[in-house]
Amino acid sequence: MKPPSCSLFFVGILWLLATIVTAYSCPTTCHCTDRNGVVVQCTSRNLEMIPPDLPKDTVVLLLSSNHIRHVTKEAFADLHHLKELDLSHNAIETVEAGAFQAISEGLRSLDLSNNHLTSLPKDAFAKLHAPVRLSHNPWHCECSLQEVLRELRLDPETVNEVSCHTSVQDEYVGQTVIQVLDSGINFCNFHHKTTDVAMFVAMFCWFSMVTAYVIYYVKHNQEEARRHMEYLKSLPSTSYISKDYDTASSVF
C-alpha cells in the first residue's frame, strides 16, 4: 500500500502538468512560440472568428489578414498578460462594449486598421492606455464616434488616415476626422439640432392631421345639416295640411 504522501505528490504533479498544458496549448490553426511569454501567430489562416483556446500567457497575438467580422467581449477575457494585439486587415464590422476591458491595463498596442468599422460603442476602449490604429475604416462621422475618439489615444503615425467615409453633414465626407473636430465642429450639437428638427416636423405633421380631421368633420356635419334641412323643406307644410283638412270638413 502506497503512503498517502506519495499519492498526494502524484496528484500534485498531474495537476501541475495539466495547468502547464492548458496555459501553453496552442490553437491548431496558429503557430505559437515562447519568448518571455507566448507569441501566437495566426496571420493569414482564413479565420472567421477569434480562436477561443488561446494560451493564457499570450503576450503577442497576431490575427491580421483573416476574415474575422466580430469582436466579442469574451474574446480576450483570459489574456491578462497580452501586450500586443493585431486585428488589422480583417472584415470586422462590430466591436462589443467592453471587448478590450480585460486587457486594457497591460496592452501596449492595438491595431484595428483596414477593417469594415463604421462606428464603435462609447465604452469600447474604457481604461485603455495603448495607442490604437483605426485607419482605413469606412467611418461614419457623428456624435458617438466623436465621443469614442475622446476616450482613446490614436496612433500618431496613422491619425491622419482616419477619415469620414460618410457623415451626418455631407460636407465633411472624405476629410480627416481629427482635423474636422479640431476645427471646432461638434457632431453631437448637430445631432441634437437634427433631433429637434425631426421633432418639429413630427409635431407639424400631427397638427396638420388634426386640423385636416377637424375641417373634414365640420364639412361633413355641414353637409349632413344641409341634407336634413332639404328633407324638412320637402315635407308638406302644416298650414297646407290644415287647409286641406278644413276643406274636407266643409264638404261633409
Strand and helix layout:
Blueprint: H1 4-24, E1 31-34, E2 38-41, E3 58-62, E4 70-71, E5 84-86, E6 94-95, E7 109-111, E8 131-133, E9 139-141, H2 143-150, E10 153-154, E11 164-167, H3 177-182, H4 187-234, H5 238-251
Describe this structure in words.
The protein is 38% helix and 14% strand. By secondary structure, it is of the alpha/beta class. The longest helix is centred in the last third of the chain and has 48 residues. It folds into two domains: 162 residues, Leucine-rich repeat, LRR (right-handed beta-alpha superhelix) (Alpha-Beta Horseshoe); 60 residues. Strand 1 and strand 2 form a beta hairpin. InterPro entries: Leu-rich_rpt, Leu-rich_rpt_typical-subtyp, LRR_TM_domain-containing, LRRNT.
Keywords:
252 residues, alpha/beta, 14% strand, Leucine-rich repeat-containing protein 3, LRR_TM_domain-containing, leucine-rich repeat
CATH fold-level label of the largest domain: Leucine-rich repeat, LRR (right-handed beta-alpha superhelix)
What's the total number of strands?
A: 11
Query: Which structural class matches the secondary elements?
Result: alpha/beta
> In the CATH hierarchy, what is the superfamily of the largest domain?
Ribonuclease Inhibitor
Helical amount: 25-40%
